[in-house]
Design goal:
Layout (H helix, E strand, L loop, with lengths): L2 H12 L3 H15 L4 H13 L3 H14 L6 H17 L3 H14 L3 H15 L7 H16 L16 E7 L8 H9 L6 E7 L6 H6 L5 E4 L5 H10 L4 E4 L19 E4 L14 E5 L15 E4 L20 H4 L3 E4 L8 H13 L4 E5 L6 H13 L4 H4 L2 E4 L14 E3 L8 H8 L4 E4 L8 H8 L6 E2 L2 H12 L2 H17 L5 H20 L1
Parallel strand pairs: 1-2, 1-4, 2-3, 4-5, 5-6, 6-7, 8-9, 8-11, 9-10, 11-12, 12-13
Helix pairs in contact: 1-2, 1-3, 2-3, 3-4, 3-5, 4-5, 5-6, 5-7, 6-7, 7-8, 13-18
Length: about 525
């Protein structure tokens, strides 16, 4: 492939002209009689941006088979990274972890190695077979890679201020799901006792950003800054509690903790498992998610709030609650709007069992992957591989993303939560739309989120700890149209009156924790 043809195709891709870039690549390959590693990787990026993960996976596997020992290790590492991300979108999380760890092995950049290891840790949360020891091994690898960046910890701070200084670190102070869970902390804090500093890593700020900004808070735009520079800024601000809101999610700034810029450093809300860092002093949780303060899945202690460690403050104006669709259709519709990457083969097999137990029942799935024919075809084949008959497949409806998705809860009678990575925002939205959520509880911290939501709503009986009870509960609820209709009327009022949406009480609980942590650290 001629270099100038590749450069032109690359320019088209950067400009968002995906079809032009694709056609130029295909034409140049035909003329050259072969494909280069550069061109194949660019084609994978085009397919990613076209939201065609099945084709992207096929392209990347062809690339890796054709150039297994290419001298361009950075390109091979990039290909393995893309493959891991695409496999995760398809729900192939165990393969995704392996691909991402291959990227770690090949990646020449120490900083990027750390990013890929973090991505592998995130993907591992959807792998049912991963135990505490498996996670601890990943954390050890992450710490070793982080040490390779040679962070120099600051000395123990000696400052004392009239107000405790709280720093929030996140790339998601924007139109993002996490913004709906941090607004009370940024807006409803005790202004007499606390000073708030927000370290925004968002590349683009928007109207949501503006709504999060309190007039008295200090807002630092830190997008694109290296970890050392962010740590330097935090240290200069003399922060008492630095609260990371991202964990190993996209855009993480966890490496900042290695410099120890703040008196106390904690994580939570935007993630659900351990940071794996010894420089993290605690992870925000509650008594429902964390039976004990210590967990074999964590390197840091769990900081257990007495009610909920979430506070849902939606920006959305919710449509009216619709009656349960089973009353008009004559059959029950189960559904799941969770990210489909969370849907394991084990959960699909369990949902198959539920559909077989409830004659005529349907299953409604909604995610970006179903917006393309290849995504729907891939999923149908996956269902068939797991024992779904043609008749059962006919009862599974797959819908792509849509702007009015909240109204589509009117097409669902019962929401089925995922496991071991459950819903967060989607659980809150389902409950606000009057749809009961059946949740499976596990031993991992994140696998207990559904229990926390439901216990705080007074509906803890909808969170069960075995697959058998999950299937029985879902099937039993499907037989009780009267209960479904009653829940439709009471779930939104219950949500509005619950600790999950009581911003004032939540912030007081968190602020009491801040005081306790600073006092303990100052001794």
């Amino acid at each position: 492939m001629k270099r100038n043809a590749y450069q032109k195709a690359y320019t088209y891709w950067k400009q968002g002209q995906l079809e032009k870039s694709r056609k130029l690549l295909l034409s140049s390959w035909k003329q050259a009689g072969g494909r280069s590693i550069y061109g194949m990787l660019l084609m994978a990026y085009i397919l990613r941006d076209e939201k065609k993960p099945v084709s992207e996976v096929r392209q990347l596997r062809e690339l890796l088979a054709a150039f297994p020992n290419a001298p361009e290790r950075n390109l091979l590492a990039d290909a393995w990274s893309l493959l891991g991300s695409a496999l995760r979108l398809l729900g192939e999380n165990e393969a995704a972890v392996r691909a991402l760890l291959q990227s770690v092995r090949l990646e020449p950049s120490p900083a990027q190695k750390l990013v890929e290891c973090s991505n592998a840790i995130f993907a591992a949360n959807s792998v049912e077979a991963f135990g505490a020891e498996d996670f601890q091994q990943l954390y050890a690898q992450y710490r070793k890679l982080l040490a390779g960046l040679h962070p120099a910890a600051y000395p123990r701070p000696a400052w004392h201020h009239e107000k405790l200084r709280i720093g929030y670190l996140s790339p998601d102070f924007r139109d993002h799901a996490i913004a709906q869970f941090v607004r009370p902390l940024l807006r409803e804090y005790d202004h007499e006792a606390f000073a708030v500093y927000a370290y925004s890593l968002a590349e683009r700020e928007d109207a949501v950003t503006a709504s999060l900004r309190d007039d008295d808070a200090v807002w630092r735009r830190m997008a694109g800054q290296p970890s050392a520079a962010i740590a330097e800024r935090v240290r200069a601000d003399e922060i008492d509690v630095l609260f990371d809101l991202t964990g190993h999610s996209a855009g993480t700034a966890l490496p900042v903790f290695a410099w120890r810029p703040a008196r106390v450093q904690i994580s939570g809300i935007g993630y659900f498992n351990s940071t794996g860092l010894e420089t993290c002093d605690g992870f925000l949780s509650d008594v429902h998610c964390a039976p004990e303060a210590q967990s074999p899945y964590f390197t840091e202690p769990l900081l257990r709030l007495p009610r909920s460690h979430f506070c849902y403050a939606p920006f959305t104006r919710f449509p009216e609650v619709a009656p349960p669709p089973c009353l008009a259709k004559g059959f029950v519709t189960f559904g799941c709007f969770n990210n489909f990457s969370k849907v394991t083969d084990g959960m699909l097999a369990l949902w198959r069992q539920i559909l077989m137990a409830v004659p005529g029942a349907h299953l409604l799935l909604k995610h970006a992957i179903f917006g393309s024919e290849e995504g729907r075809t891939y999923t149908r084949k996956r269902l068939q591989r797991l024992g779904f008959s043609d008749e059962l497949c006919g009862r599974v409806e797959m819908r792509g993303l849509s702007r009015e998705y909240l109204r589509e809860y009117g097409d669902m009678d019962i929401a089925l939560d995922t496991f071991p990575y459950p819903g967060g925002l989607t659980t809150c939205e389902a409950l606000m739309m009057g749809v009961p959520v059946v949740s499976l509880v596990g031993e991992r911290h994140g696998a207990r989120f559904g229990r926390s939501f439901l216990e705080n709503l007074g509906l803890g009986e909808l969170a069960v700890d075995t697959r058998e009870r999950y299937a029985e509960l879902a099937a039993g609820l499907a037989q009780d149209a009267q209960t479904l209709a009653a829940l439709r009327q009471v779930l939104r009022p219950k949500m509005l009156q619950s600790p999950i949406m009581d911003g004032a009480s939540y912030v007081r609980d968190v602020e009491a924790l801040f005081r306790q942590l600073v006092t303990e650290k100052s001794r």
